[in-house]
Amino acid sequence: MEQILRYRVQNDFSALSRFLEELRGLPGYARLNERQAYRLGLVLEEMISNIIKYGYDDSKVHEIEVVIRWGDMKITVELSDDGHPFDPMRHHCPGSNSAEPLEQRPIGGLGIHLARQMSEEMTYRRENGRNILQIQIGGGVAGD
Amino acid sequence: MEIGFEMKDKMTIVHLQGRLDAETSPAAESQLLPRLSASGGNWLVDLKDLEFISSAGLRVFLMLAKRARECGTKLTLCSLRPGVRNVFEISGFCTIFAIEDSPAGI
């Protein structure tokens, strides 16, 4: 049976941590398989961190809306924020070029690359001044 | 996140337990980096109890690798769980680090 969860997360890192911790404490989360739980946690942390870090120039409080639908076979996540237009699908990921030698590799910048790789599908649209990112996380029992 | 240190011969064995994520990584980095610089001997980081790593945690490992290279310390990781190993593979970090299946290989 599908379960729908809706959250509003403020754009600061302690709010993100509290949200992720609360999510991990839900009985539904415990029922996800290990792979899905890992992917969901990673995608949420990476994409929301990115919004908090780069989405805003002002120091006002903003809310990032998170809708999670989890069913038997897949999880979908929708993130909506009023930050700068940002399409992660078009983002070049510094640091993701693993052929680069260690010394020349930039620190960080890997988050979006990881989140993209761990998502089955990611679609972006800009609507009414908001970024809307829909992410599907697969991972039924059948594996990759 | 729990960090434990153990000395075996001249090697430092580091046990990481819990989650290395955006919340816990800054503190982990500030515990690990100075210790690596001061230790002298080689390092084995045992990840059998590391449940989760995100890019924030990878950043800590990248800092450790750079520092280890500066200090001439050999840094080896072992016992990665499947989820953590997957993140290392996707990010290309498997090519940076010496990774063993178990601490016995060292």
Number of structural units classed as domains of chain A: 1
Secondary-structure element string of chain A: EHHHEEHEE
Helix count of chain A?
4
Assign the structural class of chain A, choosing from mainly alpha, mainly beta, alpha/beta, alpha+beta, or little secondary structure.
alpha+beta
Q: Considering the protein shown, what is the CATH homologous superfamily of chain A? A: Histidine kinase-like ATPase, C-terminal domain
Polypeptide structure, described:
The complex is a heterodimer of chains A (144) and B (106). Chain A has helices at 13-24, 27-31, 34-54, 111-118; strands at 3-10, 63-70, 75-81, 121-127, 130-137. Chain A has 144 residues and is of the alpha+beta class. Chain A has one domain: 2-Layer Sandwich (Heat Shock Protein 90), CATH 3.30.565.10. In chain A, helix 1 (13-24) runs antiparallel to helix 3. The model of chain A has no long low-confidence stretch (mean pLDDT 87). Chain B is built from 3 helices and 5 strands, in the order ββαβαβαβ. In chain B, strands 1-2-3-4-5 form a 5-stranded mixed sheet. The radius of gyration of chain B is 12 Å and the shape is globular. The model of chain B has no long low-confidence stretch (mean pLDDT 94). The chains are: A alpha+beta (144), B alpha/beta (106).
